[in-house]
Amino acid sequence: MRPELADLRPESADLPPEPVGGEQLADHTTLRVGGPARRMITVETEAELVEAVRELDAAEEPVLVLGGGSNVLVGDAGFDGTVLKITTQGITEDTAACSGAVITVAAGEPWDPLVRYAVERGWSGLEAMSGVPGLVGATPIQNVGAYGAEVSELISTVRTLDRSTGQLKTLFPIECGFGYRTSRFKSDPGRFVVVSVTFQLPLGSMSQPIRYPELARVLGVEVGQRAAAAEVREAVLGLRAAKGMVLVDDDHDTWSVGSFFTNPIVDPATAGALPADAPRFSQPDGMVKTSAAWLIEQAGFSKGYGHGAARISGKHTLAVTNRGGATAAELITLAREIRAGVRTKFGIELVPEPVLVGCEL
Ligand SMILES: Cc1cc2nc3c(=O)[nH]c(=O)nc-3n(C[C@H](O)[C@H](O)[C@H](O)COP(=O)(O)OP(=O)(O)OC[C@H]3O[C@@H](n4cnc5c(N)ncnc54)[C@H](O)[C@@H]3O)c2cc1C
After folding, report:
1. Which of 47, 179, 226, 353 is deepest in the core (most CB within 10 A)?
2. Ligand 1 — pocket residues by CB below 6 A?
């Protein structure tokens, strides 16, 4: 057994508890907030990961799996349990002309370098999701998406440790409950630990069809056309940087979780009651997606709005940011104010995108 797990065994319950106050989770999240974790373990191999989770579960220890910390808002009291940091590495590839590149990527691999690698290798499909922070293992959790693409379109399987049985289990997309910024992993939190993700990527140096008008404009193509994947990557990185959506250590506009709220999907009657110029995107099931950023702005919250160090980004209305020294409580107060303002003006309830740990909205 790994030494740091030894004292989690039930028979060691008479040992004095480890004092709270070890690692500050603020040092492990892109919002730079979050109190202490009782304990933090880093796992470097799949075997260590599986063993650690099984041991922790046997000891009935609360576990928080943490990747890059770019989609969590951790409360100021921290996490009274064990934080498991996954740093597993490795990409295996199986490339064939008819099936494309089938690549299996360890959960701890950083996402954006994978995108760059795919573009360089002539594997298409990931380019529009360039610049998204975090690790590969977290991408199925909220079905990461950007500029008209979503990881679920490229995932062929997700290998997990199912904590309800303690067994490894491979899930096919149909079992993953993927939707807009959601999945079974998000709706049944904590049950599955993602061990690796297998993607099936078409071969070729051209991108997948461009779906996002702003990106098409920058590339000088029509929506639905393709462009060189390398150019799409550069264009996306440029667009994202201008919105504070690429992490830069000394740029407080990027001390965020990206978009704090998802774009609301409402019924046609609610969409019809919005002002004429409100963005409306018809969904296949008859519902209508509108823009959270537009609603927030129209409700009176503009870029830079906030109190003290908790403010809306100066570059993007959807990002709640820490200007340095904000607490989780202050960020939550701002998010609540924004949500209440949108509710009062439009009767629409904004839904937070990040996972909230030890706090609520
Ligand atoms: C500047 C910025 C821009 C962003 N832009 C986008 C964007 O364009 N599109 C988008 O979709 N997201 C975006 N995000 C959000 C975020 O980057 C993604 O959701 C990312 O996938 C989170 O990865 P992570 O490793 O940081 O996850 P974490 O924040 O560490 O974890 C997020 C959740 O996933 C769980 N989790 C993490 N790893 C695993 C695992 N291996 N197994 C089981 N559960 C796990 C955690 O417990 C937690 O509940 C942005 C964030 C920032 C800060």
Report:
1. 353
2. 30, 64-72, 86, 107, 132-135, 137-139, 141-142, 144-146, 193-194, 245, 247, 254, 256-258, 355
